[in-house]
Design goal:
Elements: H1 20-29, H2 39-44, H3 48-51, H4 54-63, H5 73-76, H6 79-88, H7 98-101, H8 104-113, H9 123-126, H10 129-138, H11 148-151, H12 154-163, H13 173-176, H14 179-188, H15 204-213, H16 229-238, H17 248-251, H18 254-263, H19 273-276, H20 279-288, H21 298-301, H22 304-313, H23 329-336, H24 354-363, H25 379-388, H26 404-413, H27 423-426, H28 429-436, H29 448-451, H30 454-463, H31 473-476, H32 479-488, H33 504-513, H34 523-526, H35 529-538, H36 554-563, H37 573-576, H38 579-588, H39 598-601, H40 604-613, H41 629-638, H42 648-651, H43 654-663, H44 673-676, H45 679-688, H46 698-701, H47 704-713, H48 723-726, H49 729-738, H50 754-763, H51 779-788, H52 798-801, H53 804-813, H54 823-826, H55 829-843, H56 859-868, H57 882-885, H58 888-897, H59 907-911, H60 913-922, H61 932-935, H62 938-947, H63 957-960, H64 963-972, H65 982-985, H66 988-997, H67 1013-1022, H68 1038-1047, H69 1063-1072, H70 1088-1097, H71 1113-1122, H72 1132-1135, H73 1138-1147, H74 1163-1172, H75 1182-1185, H76 1188-1197, H77 1207-1210, H78 1213-1231, H79 1236-1246
Helix pairs in contact: 1-4, 4-6, 6-8, 8-10, 10-12, 12-14, 14-15, 15-16, 16-18, 18-20, 20-22, 22-23, 23-24, 24-25, 25-26, 26-28, 30-32, 32-33, 33-35, 35-36, 36-38, 38-40, 40-41, 45-47, 47-49, 49-50, 50-51, 51-53, 53-55, 58-60, 62-64, 64-66, 66-67, 67-68, 68-69, 69-70, 70-71, 71-73, 73-74, 74-76, ...
């Protein structure tokens, strides 16, 4: 509408001023009622200039759309202007030119920006679906102006409603009453519920759909729906404040209200008054949401007890309590217990209270921000805050920012807090040093005086090179200082003065530390060949910073390439295409191939040299060379992974791949499935690299037989065996037997398997750590494991190692178990002695092979000799408590068991000469454990060896080389020769003395003396078997051998072959030891005199006689008369000879077992046999086992004779009684020879 009053006349020569337009707008703003009717006339009185003024007309259009009709044609024909007019006033659309109204795109654009313009559109446009929808998007109310057809169109109205729910109010009445349609509408826009029919606003399904979309839609629901708990619950879940629209009954529903409050504390304002005044409910509400406190009942808000309970649960609820309570210390402290930030809501008086503020910062240091300025001047408060959060230094009072202790506390935690320190402390070197730490950028907060201090900055740069960038300007110009810095951090060159960047000495120091520093040098020095060479030698890529002229320099570029192949990228183009240069470059660094020109990447010579330097250079070769077998193989030999760059045709060549895999197992991963499934190929790869197994095919890796073969090849590959096979007991056992630590890869169930774990422990004791935890405390298992490897006890459960009975059992298994026992057990005398005995016994020989030289001197002597060779062995005393190691009585007892004990005794005992002599009296071999000053004392050692020659074993090297001491030792004990020095073993007098006393000592004599007849004669005269240690010459000497066999017939074993055919010598041997017949020559074993002599000495020597003599009745009779058990070696004829067999069984009843079958059924033979040995009944014929006389005779000497009697005899009660009487009579006769307990015991056992 236009105001009827015209504006003042304007000068036609100019447009209206900026101030004129607002005046027009004001004039149009409040028109009188008659303005509409006179608008055209009024506008008609406006000058043409104003009708062409865009601003003026737009101002007019804003008042009335009709104004557009009077605007100048130049404006009404301007599309953008008309659109702008429509945006100002939708009614302008009615006055748009017809050409625009016929332009559908124009109308669409107009309606999109001003939906209300639809009111002024033509009937046809108001029925256009697309145009109306565009209008609705701009202004949902424009649906009111749509055609009736569209307002009754379900799909269209739904689209409109989706844009805005209020559009439903303009839909046809039928749609607003249609449930399905309204449901669809409210699902798109909950606000649509407001315009649904009355009936539908009370429909549960419709209302639920609406409030599910937007809880606030509850305000549009019918009364009964606002009383529906289900609908209201759904509403408050999405929009808690919708509780305001619920019925009064539901506002009293505590559970419902609490659900709303949890989401929005303000919802409590809509709850029923009784609920808001209920203490328990109100507390629960506030705990759920602190903001609810502002809406609890007035009486509760002023209740001190209630508020304390609230702030203990929700400390920040302090904000919402009554002002009087925010001044209450107890209330505020209760809040601060949980959150220091509650301080912000405390009364200002309390925020100035030291105790209160300290409580706040103790919980949250940053709460200091809410303390009063005055309290922030208290050092105690500030110190507490700074310790918790150093940045709170910013809040400190000015005088505390100059407190060194406080500032140091802050900067040590966070250097950046230096910026909050006072100027005085920013100049303090201690403070600045503590602040900077590893972050030099903090120096920017330090004072200039500190950054200009040469000594301080130099020390700082040495620990943090980047500090140079923050040094004072004067320092950065100081050449000497700068050079020192460059030597530790060349990169700092960028921070120095420009003049120094042109100083050769400075730049040289920089680039030698970091080649990249060349970037910051002056152009002149970046063109200096010497400096650039130093830079690229340190970092090849520094070539990029060299001047272009030097990138043509072959030596410079080669130096760079040697350090970094990628540096070639910065070399001149002509160098990168030069073959000779390329060959030199790739030889230095194969990866330089990437930067040579394409024609050189196809040059085989260049590529071969590159891949030999770096296999991965193959990646940058031409594709033609990636299929060249020779080139690819050269790369693969360097690194199997290079095969990844080869072409598929190469990787599919089986012959090539097998050759490559043999040289580089990792190549298997690039092979085809056929090779990865080939057992021999994979085994070959796994042998060299355990990881190769993971590249085999799944079927091969799951092949049990293959995996077992693989474990024999390389057990380390077990970790790549499939999980199923790692649960296979047989495979697991095979793996852990080779390496116990592979137990970590077996299935969990097998870590409980004692056999599997035991096998692992035998290999690696630490494997126990990988077993099931229960194994570490399994007594039976640990003892079994300790027998195999005592180290397993290291991993045993500490609790079981404190169990005395277990440790004692473990010690019996292996004395070393004491090492792992508790301190209390290591103090136990019995436990330690048991360990000493166990370790001593473990060091003794386990079979006769260890005693081979001692067969005729006695096992006891030989065991002593064996023990003597182990004098440096650790004894169990080493693991005992210190008090036992220092106990003289205990050590002496232990020395009797193990001579090595003295070496582990307390040093004072080992230095005590009287004590050492006592130990020697107990065990001569213990001397080796005495202190060095004792074992090197001539007089004492002389006394010791006279006491026991074996003491020589512990004497110093010098004294073992002393003749007097050696003679004294071998005089005391011939076996002491084994401990003498080589020189003494070569001394004839010493050796003669030893062998005359103890023939086996010849073993320890020097080789020369073992070839001396006098010495050997003395030795074999003492011990014939010493012949074994004589030289080959003397073992062929008849006199020597005769003396030896005269001493021990078995010496014949060591005689020269020619002497075993000497009848006189052999007769002497077998006459002393019949078994020597075994070592006689074949001829003499046919000699009747020799054999007769032997069997008379030892009947069983018949076994070594010639077969002809085994048929000689006289010889066999002589043998069986000596030992009936020689009958097995007689001929078959003589085993059936009654005289021979009778003599044999008379001598040994058990010889009946070797008699002929007929004689085993001869009653006289059987009676003689069982009379000699009742057990011979078991060898008798069945007929004899059924003969009462024979069985009765056997029973007299063998109480179990009935076990061999026939079934009939054992069922004959009378016979059994006679057997018992005969047996008791024999027992009684034997018992008369003894009295007392022994007799009773014998009778009981026999019975």
């Amino acid at each position: 509408y236009l105001h009827p009053l015209s504006p003042p006349p304007l000068d036609a020569t100019h447009m209206p001023s900026a101030s004129a337009v607002p005046a027009v707008r004001i004039a149009f703003a409040s028109p009188p009622p008659s303005a509409s009717s006179s608008s055209s006339a009024a506008l008609g009185r406006v000058t043409p200039e104003l009708l062409a003024d865009r601003s003026y007309v737009l101002a007019a259009v804003k008042v009335s759309g009709n104004a557009l009709a009077k605007a100048a044609p130049m404006l009404t024909e301007d599309r953008e202007f008309v659109l702008q007019a429509i945006r100002q006033n939708a009614g302008a659309l009615a006055h748009a030119p017809a050409s625009f109204l016929d332009d559908r795109l124009f109308v669409l654009e107009a309606l999109s920006s001003c939906g209300a313009a639809l009111e002024f559109a033509s009937h046809a446009l108001r029925a256009d679906r697309e145009l109306v929808l565009a209008a609705v998007r701009a202004d949902p109310r424009s649906l009111e102006h749509a055609s009736e057809t569209l307002r009754d169109d379900r799909s269209f109205v739904l689209e409109a409603v989706a844009e805005s729910g209020c559009a439903l109010q303009y839909a046809a009445q039928g749609l607003r009453e249609d449930k399905d349609f309204v449901l669809a509408a409210v699902k798109r826009s909950a606000d649509a519920l407001a315009f649904a029919g009355e009936r539908l606003r009370s429909d549960a399904e419709v209302c639920l759909a609406a409030v599910r979309r937007d809880g606030s839609a509850l305000r549009h629901a019918g009364k009964e729906m606002r009383d529906s708990r289900r609908v209201v619950v759904m509403a408050v879940r999405g929009h808690p404040s919708s509780l305001a629209y619920a019925s009064e009954a539901l506002k009293r529903d505590g559970e419902l209200v609490l659900a709303a409050v949890r989401l929005d504390g303000a919802a409590l304002a809509f709850a029923a008054e009784p609920l808001r005044g209920d203490r328990d409910f109100a507390l629960a509400a506030v705990k759920a949401n602190a903001t609810a406190l502002g809406h609890v009942g007035a009486s509760l808000r002023t209740s001190r007890d209630f508020v304390i309970d609230v702030v203990r649960a929700r400390p920040l609820a302090l904000e919402h309590i009554d002002a009087s309570l925010r001044r209450d210390r107890q209330v505020v402290l209760a809040a601060l217990d949980l959150s220091g930030f509650a301080l912000q809501f405390a009364d200002p008086v309390l925020r100035d209270d030291k105790e209160i503020v300290l409580a706040a910062v103790a919980r949250h240091p940053d709460a200091l921000a809410f303390a009063s300025p005055a309290i922030r001047g208290d050092k105690d408060v500030m110190m507490a805050a700074v310790r918790g959060s150093p940045s709170t230094l910013e809040l400190a009072a000015p005088h505390l920012k100059d407190d060194k202790e406080l500032v140091l506390t802050a900067v040590k935690q966070c250097g950046f807090t230096l910026k909050f320190a006072g100027d005085h402390l920013k100049a303090d070197q201690d403070v600045v040093r503590a602040a900077v730490g590893t972050n030099a950028s903090i120096l920017e907060y330090a004072s200039k005086s500190v950054r200009e201090n040469k000594d301080f900055m130099l020390a700082l740069v040495e620990t943090n090179s980047s500090a140079m960038a923050y040094a004072g300007k004067a320092l950065r110009k100081d050449k000497a200082f700068t050079i020192q810095v460059m030597r530790t951090c060349g990169e700092a060159l960028k921070s120095v003065d420009e003049k120094l960047k042109d100083d050769a000495e400075v730049v040289t120091a920089a680039v030698m530390n970091s080649g990249s520093a060349l970037e910051f040098a002056s152009d002149r020095l970046r063109n200096d060949r010497g400096i650039v060479l130093k830079a690229v030698a340190q970092k090849g890529s520094a070539l990029v910073h060299a001047m272009p002229t030097l990138r043509f320099d072959r030596n410079v570029v080669l130096e760079a390439v040697a350090q970094d192949g990628s540096a070639l990228a910065y070399g001149a183009e002509e160098l990168r295409r030069d073959k000779d240069f390329a060959l030199a470059a790739v030889a230095l660094n194969g990866m330089a191939l990437q930067y040579v020109t394409p024609e050189l990447k196809v040059d085989k010579q260049v590529v071969l040299r590159a891949v030999r330097a770096n296999a991965h250079a193959l990646e940058h070769a031409d594709s033609r060379l990636k299929r060249d077998r020779e080139t690819v193989l050269a790369a693969v030999l360097q690194d199997g992974a290079a095969l990844a760059y080869a072409l598929e045709s190469v990787r599919n060549d089986d012959i090539f791949m097998i050759s490559a895999i043999a040289k580089q197992p990792c190549v298997l991963q690039y092979a085809g499935e056929r090779l990865r499934n080939n057992a021999e190929v994979v085994l070959g790869a796994v042998k060299s690299d355990k990881n190769a197994l993971k590249w085999a095919t799944p079927s091969l890796r799951n092949d049990r037989d293959f995996v077992l073969r693989m474990l024999r090849t390389n057990s380390g590959a077990f970790e790549h065996v499939p999980e199923g096979l790692r649960a296979d007991r047989g495979i697991a056992l095979a793996a852990v037997k080779t390496d116990g630590l592979l137990l970590r890869h077996v299935a969990e169930v097998l870590r409980h398997d004692k056999d599997v774990v035991l096998a692992a422990i035998v290999s690696k004791p630490k494997a126990l750590d990988l077993a099931a935890p229960s194994m570490k405390s399994d007594r039976e298992f640990l003892l079994a494991a300790a027998r195999r490897n005592i180290e397993v006890l290291r991993a045993a459960d500490p609790q079981i190692m404190n169990d005395r009975s277990f440790v004692m059992d473990a010690i019996r298994v292996n004395g070393t178990a004491l090492l792992f026992a508790s301190v209390e057990i290591r103090k136990d005398r019995n436990a330690v002695m048991l360990a000493i005995q166990a370790m001593a016994e473990a060091s003794m020989p386990r079979d006769d092979d260890d005693l081979g030289m001692c067969s005729s001197v006695g096992r006891e002597s030989c065991v002593e000799t064996f023990a003597a060779s182990n004098t440096l062995r650790l004894s169990a005393l080493a693991y005992a408590a210190q008090e036992l190691q220092a106990d003289p009585e205990f050590v002496l007892r232990a020395v009797e068991v193990d001579p090595n004990v003295l070496g582990n005794a307390d040093l004072r005992l080992r230095q005590d000469r009287d004590f050492v002599l006592q130990a020697l009296q107990r065990n001569g071999l213990s001397f080796g454990g005495a202190a060095p000053q004792v074992t090197s004392d001539y007089d004492f050692v002389l006394t010791a060896v006279k006491l026991d020659g074996r003491a020589l074993s512990g004497a110093s090297d010098a004294l073992r080389n002393n003749k007097a001491i050696a003679l004294a030792a071998v005089t005391a004990r011939g076996d002491a020769l084994m401990y003498a020095s080589d020189a003494m073993r070569s001394n004839k007098e010493v050796v003669l003395t030893a062998v005359e006393l103890w023939g086996p000592a010849l073993r320890y004599a020097a080789e020369g003396l073992r070839g001396t007849k006098e010495v050997v004669l003395a030795a074999v005269g003492t011990w014939g078997l010493a012949l074994q240690h004589a030289s080959d010459r003397l073992r062929g000497d008849r006199d020597v051998v005769l003396v030896a066999v005269a001493n021990d017939g078995l010496a014949l074993l060591h005689a020269a072959p020619k002497l075993t055919d000497d009848k006189e010598l052999v007769l002497a041997a077998v006459g002393l030891w019949g078994a020597a017949l075994e070592y006689a020559s074949k001829r003499l074993r046919c000699d009747r005199d020799v054999v007769m002599t032997a069997v008379k000495r030892w009947g069983v020597a018949l076994q070594f006689a010639d077969e002809s003599l085994k048929k000689d009745k006289e010889v066999v009779l002589a043998a069986v008369s000596t030992d009936g058990l020689s009958l097995p070696y007689a001929s078959a004829e003589l085993k059936a000879d009654r005289d021979v067999v009778l003599m044999a069984v008379k001598n040994c009843g058990s010889a009946l077992a070797h008699a002929a079958e007929a004689l085993r059924g001869d009653k006289q033979v059987a009676l003689v046999a069982v009379a000699a040995r009742g057990q011979a009944l078991r060898y008798a014929a069945p007929a004899m086992q059924a003969d009462k006389q024979v069985v009765l005779a056997a029973a007299r000497s063998w109480g179990s004779a009935l076990t061999c009697a026939s079934e009939a005899l054992r069922a004959d009660e009378a016979f059994v009684r006679s057997v018992m009487q005969a047996r008791l009579a024999t027992v009684g006769a034997g018992a008369t020879k003894t009295t007392g307990p022994a007799r009773a015991q014998w009778s009981t056992m026999s019975l």
